[in-house]
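Chapter review. Work through the record for Beta-defensin before attempting the end-of-chapter questions.
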Amino acid sequence: MRTFLFLFAVLFFLTPAKNAFFDEKCDKLRGTCKNNCGKNEELISLCQKALKCCRTIQPCGNITD
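Structure tokens for Beta-defensin:
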């Protein structure tokens, strides 16, 4: 019975992990629609529902050690 209660708590009370596969894509599948762009992202265009299309900034040049 304790095992059942533990599994019930894990499956129904914890927030589900966010899966990037199901996020809305934009800019020919290279960007993601979000409320705000992150620190290493740039605003490309606007999506539906007043969201911003954010794309990760690529570093300039090759970095070698």
